[in-house]
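Hey, I'm writing a tutorial for new members on how sequence and structure tokens pair up, and I'd like a real worked example in the thread rather than a made-up one. If someone can provide the structure for the chain below, I'll link this post from the tutorial.
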Amino acid sequence: MVLELSQQQIHLLHASLAESIEELHDEVLHTDEREMREELREKLHRLQALHRQVEALMQREQPAL
């Protein structure tokens, strides 16, 4: 599935992902149960990968100087 997003939506998605990554990272650090921490880390890695994809999209969409 392909989504068409406006520049404003892309920037909002980027900011939301960054905030979610920060919150999830804190949760990983403060979770005592090892199995739960591993699951949270996997989710964190997926969010970080998505964040990098959005950053790449933002860079492609910026006009050349």
